[in-house]
Amino acid sequence: MKENELYDIDAWIAEYLSGELGPTMKGELEAWVNASEENRRYFLQREELWFSAVCGEELEKFGANKAFEAFRRRIKAAEAQPAVGQSRWRKALRYVAAVAVLCMVAHFSYRQGGQDLKDTLAWIEVEAPAGSQTRMRLPDSTLVVLNAGSRMVYAQDFGVESREVQLEGEGYFEVTRNERQPFRVSSENIALTVLGTKFNFRDYPQEDEVVVSLREGLVTLDNRIREEAPMALKPDERMVMDKCQGRMKRERMATDSYLKWMDGKLEFDGTPLDKVIQVLERSYDASIRLEEDSLAGLRLYGSFNRNEQGLSDILDILQATGKINYRLQKDSVIIIY
What we know:
disordered N terminus; sigma factor antagonist activity; FecR; FecR_C; DUF4974 domain-containing protein; Ferrdict_sens_TM; 13-stranded mixed β-sheet; three-stranded mixed β-sheet; alpha+beta
């Protein structure tokens, strides 16, 4: 939020908490809250004052108008704020009445509502869109590299009481060691716990396998599909889970080829064509489909670099093998015999 708008922050918060703030301004407010710990504390303080003023015993006793005045008095008592335009407060007062009705009809306590709103602003989401990669460091200095088409979510207070992230897709992690606070990565199917190590975690929703590959240290894996004993991995080992069977299987690795994706490398070693298509779609943000389903199991071999070769280059090379052909149809690529 711009500096010259800070005087109006309480009115923005009032509109947000009443559900009347538009999506654009809501995004601005959320960005302002996420900008610093001071802003976050300020918001949470105002949130508590708001709900205690408009939902609960004071609302039932005094009504919406008195409740709003109580909200203003509580703000003044908690911390002196710059004056806000009278028309803005009158507009916000109408929102208080609306919230009062919602509170009475829905029978929500202000604390539950407050928790829901805290949850709204309590998560940070990082994405690597199709055709790209994202590299970042978490607040504890842990390095994370997300592969194309991946998404990671973690709490704003990451590192305060716990270190947990939720992952959808593929990510490489170099975890900063902290023996007092384990690092945890969870997907829909697997939960991984480490103290400090280097590993690759792959769990795309559209794929039928989960693969966790360990480069250094030690990791512990918990099955979230079915009950079985936790699995501990050592360096140069990986866990492969078939999502249909739901069981973890340990395998030895001869090389670190699983990390080549970070350098833009795409390697297919007898990979079924339908799996090749998944990788190409994510890597190039493209739409590719098979003309005949019978082509799905065709196995292809090749090593490519998406930083140096375009999608058409790869398709031309695969076509030169004589196994497939392709044609362009509007914004899609059609694989044919």
